[in-house]
Design goal:
Structural class of chain B: alpha/beta
Oligomer: heterodimer
Radius of gyration of chain A: 15 Å
Structural class of chain A: alpha+beta
Shape of chain B: globular
Number of helices of chain B: 4
Radius of gyration of chain B: 12 Å
Shape of chain A: globular
Largest sheet of chain B: 6 strands, mixed
Strand content of chain B: 25-35%
Number of strands of chain B: 6
Distance between the termini of chain B: 28 Å
Largest sheet of chain A: 6 strands, antiparallel
């Protein structure tokens, strides 16, 4: 399954097939083409990569239902002050209300339920579109 | 990304994670550890010395494996976390679920 990244001075775009097995390759491809300067190498290698993997995994599992015929769209805005990751699927949206706190003792041994919690700690800002099928993750320069 | 599985001379299973542990490869790790558990292994160390990042699915599979191993009377320990990964375990409070050491050697010595 091939991935084709479209790169301009202002943004990168990638369509990712709805296949969890391709998430690692997609993250590697985007991170490897991120211009140096805005984010430190450490933040690219940890914060950026983990946040993108989380967002892609969520979109593929919850948005497109791991249907290989569908795609998840990634757009990365390349600014001097920040990098913004947009991940959008074609699903009906995801209800983020009433998500249990994964750090509560009764939830610690649960296998799932940490995705958005982890994302919020990795990036500087998290925003969603109105339908709930798109997320924007902002990593400010540094 | 790949996983290595070795058994030390005292029978501890050491699993190395090269690259990342994420939604796309967690099942591979899970199967390797479950195979070793079925083969009689009870003491496990997952070594993250060569790991760049772990997502929440990777964390989840470690939680699930730890539980299965404990149910069989064994233990899963973690080692080699870099500063960012250590912080990830602390903020999710998973550092309270696992014995974590700086190196795999320390984890082996502590068994």
């Amino acid at each position: 399954m091939s991935l084709r990244l479209h790169v301009t001075a202002l943004e990168m775009r990638l369509d990712v097939p709805s296949d969890l097995g391709i998430v690692g390759d997609a993250v590697d491809l985007v991170a490897s083409r991120l211009p140096a300067g805005t984010l430190s190498p450490r933040r690219v290698n940890f914060n950026f990569r983990t946040a993108l993997a989380e967002a892609l995994g969520n979109a593929i599992r919850h948005g497109t239902g791991e249907d290989p015929g569908r795609v998840v769209r990634v757009r990365v805005e390349l600014g001097r002050d920040a990098v913004r990751i947009h991940v959008t699927d074609d699903g009906g949206g995801y209800d983020r209300t009433h998500l249990p706190d994964p750090t509560r003792p009764e939830n610690l041994e649960r296998e799932d339920g940490r995705g958005l919690f982890v994302i919020r700690h990795l990036v500087d800002d998290v925003a969603y579109n109105a339908k709930g099928n798109g997320i924007c993750l902002t990593l400010r320069a540094g | 990304m790949s996983f290595s599985v070795k058994k030390d001379k005292s029978g501890v299973v050491v699993v190395g994670v090269d690259g990342q542990l994420i939604v796309g490869n967690r099942q591979e790790l899970k199967q390797k550890v479950l195979d070793a558990l079925e083969g009689g292994g009870r003491k496990f160390v997952v070594d993250f010395a060569k790991t760049g990042y772990i997502d929440s699915s990777g964390l989840g599979v470690l939680v699930s494996l730890s539980k299965k191993i404990r149910e069989q009377g064994g233990e899963l320990r973690l080692a080699g976390l870099n500063e960012d990964l250590q912080t990830l375990f602390e903020l999710t409070k998973l550092d309270t679920l696992f014995a974590i050491t700086k190196t795999a050697e320390e984890a082996l010595a502590a068994f």
